[in-house]
Amino acid sequence: MALRIWASSTANALRLSTATTPHFSPLSRCFSSVLDGLKYANSHEWVKHEGSVATIGITDHAQDHLGEVVFVDLPDTGGSVTKATGFGAVESVKATSDVNSPISGEIVEVNTKLSETPGLINSSPYEDGWMIKVKPSNPSELESLMGAKEYTKFCEEEDAAH
Amino acid sequence: MATRHVAQAGRPLMNIVRMKGVPILQQLEIEECLLRTSSDNWCIINDGADKPNIVMGISGKPAELVEIKPVLEDNIPVIRRFTGGGTVIVDHGTIFVSFICNKDDVADVQPYPRPIMSWSSLLYTQVFQGIADFRLRENDFVFGLRKFGGNAQSITKNRWIHHTSFLWDYETRNMSYLKLPKRAPEYRLARDHLDFVCPMKDYISRSDFISRTIDAAGRLFSVESTEFEAVKSSSNVNFTPTSRLLTNQELEAASMIAI
Question: What is the interface pTM, i.e. ipTM, of the complex?
Answer without folding.
Answer: 0.91
